Amino acid sequence: MANKPAITIIDKTDQLALYCERWAKMPFITVDTEFMRERTYFSQLCLIQVASENEAAIIDPLADGLDLAPFLDLLANKNVLKIFHAARQDIEIFYHLMKQVPAPLFDTQIAAMACGYGDQIGYEPLIRMTSGATIDKGSRFTDWARRPLSDKQLIYALGDVTHLIDAYKILLKSLQEKGREDWVREEMAFLLDPSLYFVKPEEAWRRLKLRSVRPKELGPLIKLAEWREREAQHRNVPRQRIIKDDAIFELARQAPTTPEAMARCRSISGGFERSSQAKGLLNAIEAGLKIPRDRLPKLNDDRDRTPVPADIMELLRVLLKHKCQAENVAPKLLASVADLEAIARYDEPDIPAMKGWRRKIFGEAALKLKRGELAMRLKDGEVDIFELNG
Questions:
Q1: Closest listed residue to residue 257, CA positions, set 224, 242, 274, 279
Q2: In whole angstroms, what separates CA 260 from the centre of its chain?
Q3: Which domains does the chain have, with CATH numbers?
């Protein structure tokens, strides 16, 4: 039986500072986190896993007296590349701790899409397909906030960064051979946008599915969503625990101005109208009703649009699939369904698929197909797309 690998757990600030001093001399580190979020608005950081080519360790952010400042300084160090897999949630956690986005970044999930490993590939299949290693995911959904952690949990957690080193090297080599480093660099720039990691309460309404909101309902809806977001952030609880989406829509539609009128709303539980929260909701509705109609945001109403012909959408899907297979790139990285709809609807839509390398590979061809300048045929059992002359 193989010896159990020794795992270093960092739980002292001076110990963390020494590791970070060594990691700061490395060209890159791999990073992952374990967190809990079921009962909170902000993620509860439970573990940080870090590896370089020389060493790997686990940082315990729940350890008494541990100051994460040395590691946060490392994340801000522009000379060290930080490698994540599916980085969005990890970055959100660190953004709230350090008030900036860690940089520079490399996301292996995005790189894998550019290398032909499929759309949003998970960590375990990526490692299996690149380095051939296998990962036991049995500890994935355990309680990471409970101490002590088991050996199985620690081995699993550390594996999320040690295997990532080989995957990164393989993906980087593939990107260099294909000349696609700029593709990934462009996507990494998108991840550096701070607005991805914090919802401004006044913008919270944009997260709602505005299926059939009437103009007179929009003001109350905006203010109700803003009030809920502030409450959720202040109390650090999931927004749905404050008030559910269905209740926001009903309150915006009914626009009650008194506790008695609120009590008649079906989505409001009995007695809620007498609570302190009810007063906040009534104030939000009143503020929303006072917003002048000409100061409300304009909504894109799909009901006023001519439906996109299904045949055109199908042709664009065939073209997208053909281009992705030819270039060995994941479809979601090249164009979304919304991109296809925009191309079908407009001559020069302002969408990612019509910019940069995406336009060169797919966007221009999509416009030519729409204009009738490209044709498709079956040749040797495969779809052949060719340009028409004249």
A1: 279
A2: 41
A3: 9-196 (3.30.420.10), 201-295 (1.10.150.80), 305-387 (1.10.150.80)
User: What are 50's strand-pairing partners?
Assistant: 31, 57
> pTM to 2 decimals?
0.88
* Each residue's pLDDT tens digit, 262-314: 999 999 888 888 888 899 999 999 999 999 999 999 876 554 466 788 999 99
Token pair of 153, please? 């949990």
Among residues 183, 128, 192, which one has the least CA distance to residue 329?
A: 183
DSSP 85: S
Identify the H or E element spanning 353.
Answer: none
CA 7/CA 58 separation, integer angstroms: 8
Residue 358 and residue 352: Cα distance in Å, rounded?
7
Residue 377 buriedness (CB in 10 A; 0-12 / 13-18 / 19+): exposed
**Element holding 167 (H helix, E strand):** helix 151-178
Taking the C-alpha atoms of residue 106 and residue 85, their distance in angstroms, rounded to an integer, is: 8
What's the CA gap between 298 and 23, in Å, rounded?
Answer: 49
Q: Using one digit for the tens of pLDDT, what is the confidence trace for 130-145?
A: 999 888 776 677 899 9
Query: Given the DSSP bridges, would you call strands 9-10 and 56-59 parallel, antiparallel or unpaired?
Result: parallel
